[in-house]
Amino acid sequence: MKKLILNSFILFSFAILAQEKDFHLPKANDEFAEKKYAEAEAEYRISLSNNPKKSISAYNLGNAIYKQNNNTEALFSYENAIKNSTVRPEKHKAFHNSGNVYMKEKNYSAAVEAYKNALRNNPNDEETRYNFALAKKMLKNNPPKKDDKKDKKDKKKDNKKDKKDEKKDDKKKDDKKDGDQKNKNDQKNNPDGQPKPKPGGIQKERVQNLLDAVNNEEKKIQDKVNAKKVKGKPIQTEKDW
């Protein structure tokens, strides 16, 4: 695999725009050229503190920090340069070097976006185009992993759902068990397997039987009374004249 073009820094392209009164910026550039990156960083910081919106100092400060393998701070300086820059060439260089930082950290999706933004500001830069193609290839071969927090949240949600489903299943089992026990009791009380009459039906039948018994008793009593009346009345054998 071809190596990433990480050293495509154009450090002094911004320097010609520096104000004459800023002696720290050119001094920092000299220190950088001599690979005295810590000394250059100090001078760039002084230059930037005197003019916080100077994109030149922010960009070159990012380069000095990057050379000292401090990717996070370097990226912050590049972002500061992008925010304060008003011309495309400056934005292009800052985006390009941001992409280099992301590639170094194996954040390929962010690198792709950074190089893409760099090409938007300078579509003709071959180094940026090469790095952009390489970043896309690395992203394809190394897709980003899911966020651990999201995984934990999803897992927690799934566990809750599982517990809820388990409770439903347990309730169904209990209901089924109660139903089975009820069927067993019914079969025990009704061995013929005939459907049981409703409780209301039984009561109605019993009431009717009682009414029939009462009516029969009343009839018997009435018959006795009538029999006595007939016995006590004299029998007429002859007609009156």
Structure description:
The chain has helices spanning 24-33, 37-50, 55-67, 71-84, 88-104, 108-121, 126-141, 148-189, 199-232. With 241 residues, the protein is mainly α. It is rod-shaped, with a radius of gyration of 51 Å. Residues 12-19, 192-202 and 233-241 have low confidence and may be disordered.
Q: What does the average pLDDT come to?
A: 75
**Helical amount:** over 70%
Number of strands: 0
**How far do the termini sit from each other?**
156 Å
What fraction of the residues are assigned to beta strands by DSSP?
under 5%
Shape: rod-shaped
Low-pLDDT residue intervals, each spanning 5 or more residues: 12-19, 192-202, 233-241
Judged by helices, strands and strand pairing, the structural class is mainly alpha
Radius of gyration: 51 Å
Secondary-structure element series: HHHHHHHHH
Q: Main beta sheet: strand number and arrangement?
A: none
In quaternary terms, these chains amount to: single chain
* Helical run tally: 9
